[in-house]
Amino acid sequence: MTSAAGTVFEADYLNTLGVASLNVMNMGKWAVSNVGLFSEGANQTYLESTSAPVVGTNTPELFQTSRLSTGSLRYYGLGLENGLYNVTLHFAENIFSDRSTQTWDSLGRRVFDIYIQGHRREKDFDISKEAGGVNIAIQKDFSINVTQNYLEIHLFWGGKGTCCIPNDGDHGPLISALSVVSDFEPTVSGIPPETSISDKGKTGIIVGVVVAAIVVCLMPIFVIFYFRKKSCADKEELLELRAKTNTFSYAELRSATNDFNPANKLGEGGFGPVYKGMLSDGRVVAVKQLSVASHQGKSQFVTEISTISAVQHRNLVKLCGCCIDRKKRLLVYEYLENKSLDQALFGATHLHLDWGTRFSILLGTARGLAYLHEESRPRFVHRDVKASNILLDAELCPKISDFGLAKLYEDKKTHITTRVAGTIGYLAPEYAMRGHLTEKADVFGFGVVALEILSGRPNADDSLDGEQRYLLEWSWNLYENKRTLELVDPTVTAFDESEAFRIIGVAFLCTQASPILRPSMSRVVAMLTGDVEVNAVASKPSYLTDWNFKDITSSFMDDNDSESKLAKEDDINKDCTSTPFATTDPNPSPINVTEPMLLSTYMY
């Protein structure tokens, strides 16, 4: 059809659009896309026809049929020469009655937005309101610069206006016609020329040569396009994350840490190194490079990050954001001035932790773990509770760090076992031996940390001799010999004895061999605050008593004198009176082999 102004219109030949469809017109110059389903199956053709006369136009037949969508309607102009174009959209409301009639049909309101090239050009567009009534033609003109050889016109219903007047499904964008005219003299028609029969052979040779040349020339472009598309996929996966947490570019974090300068390195844990950095807005942050390969894909990683970002507690380190750049994955945390608890306790720092501060740090750590285990959604098992994962802010308030990494990098597991990951000295026995991970593994680690805070020394110190080398063993020896308070750090000049006994009792309960004997972290908090009594500890854990033996193997390996070996064997046999080797009975009773206490304790 040709309008009075000489514009040639091509018919939208599709009688029916799909619920989610994209179709190209016969001439290959236009495509139409629809998304949305009308309620109760109304208007399955996505067309609206009227026999009422449309005024305000020299070409009323353009408005006899209109394209309708329940939600999103897009038209694409294809193969356009780049340059300026005049885009004209033609509308006429032909479903509702005139508002002056005061009828049910007149109450309908059609409200939608108009986007061109991805930019919103009209917000809350109402056809009848703009035209001054129904069955009145109106056009909207836009000047558009086409830069990538295509044009996108998007009509989008955002849930405004009415939806069921006069019938169900009478809503959404509606358009009668559209035209695009270049503001310049085109150098190409954009329509494939007809080829005569006599030129078929010649055309075939030319096309073959051109296609071969194009393939060779465009290969580098395809490579660039592939990596660009991959990068875009990464960005798209982060779009849903932006509403929940901040995302940083790798270049931004690289600049913030001065190209991850070793001088800015704060430390390194099992999941990667941590660097101090300053963002462009002046914020000081800690940037952790994750070096352990995760079994998760990017989308799962993004979901986990958004989950961890939502966990907020005064005793948990705040996650400021993340960066995913291909295989590079980084987490950005708040920076805490006084670094980690192990440096404050065992390192050469200027900090002096008095008794009140130590008790406050221990109580805050317990509250943070109680939140992770019992209050947060989802719940977390930290898996590596230790002094170096407890950070101190400017007021020496403790904040547990890396609480989300165990979840991010959790291995494929059954309902009872998982790969053991943690730090020797803080591992619960059932986790170290069987991979049985529950929140009680964190309780065990907390018990060790409690003894470290109390004594001011690490859980193992090779510079010490004998029974003092291992903190747990030494603590129990002092307790059994009624010298418990000797465990308190000698640099602490004044302390509360009742609080000290409470901490020791809690630590002993938390480090019991059987998980079922260890308290929950919420009960630990109640015991530390004095709200409930600390339960009495019956006996030393089996993993300490079972390991209390005299190591004699080295003397056998080092002594080459056979007579000396025999003499030593005789001495050993005299000591081992409970074994058949120590008796002259010609018919000794068989050895009674029982299950080690260390294993039987874990059966629950």
From TrEMBL:
Subcellular localization(s) per the UniProt record: Membrane
Catalysed reactions listed for this entry: L-threonyl-[protein] + ATP = O-phospho-L-threonyl-[protein] + ADP + H(+); L-seryl-[protein] + ATP = O-phospho-L-seryl-[protein] + ADP + H(+)
Documented EC number(s): 2.7.11.1
Name of this protein: non-specific serine/threonine protein kinase
Membrane topology: Single-pass type I membrane protein
MF GO annotations: ATP binding; protein serine/threonine kinase activity
Transmembrane regions listed in the UniProt entry: 205-227
PANTHER family with a match to the protein in the record: LEUCINE-RICH REPEAT-CONTAINING PROTEIN DDB_G0281931-RELATED, OS08G0203700 PROTEIN
Lineage: superkingdom: Eukaryota
CDD domains: STKc_IRAK (cd14066)
Ranges of residues in domain Protein kinase: 260-534
InterPro entries: Kinase-like_dom_sf (IPR011009), LRR_Rcpt-Like_S/T_Kinase (IPR051824), Malectin_dom (IPR021720), Prot_kinase_dom (IPR000719), Ser/Thr_kinase_AS (IPR008271)
Keyword ATP-binding: yes
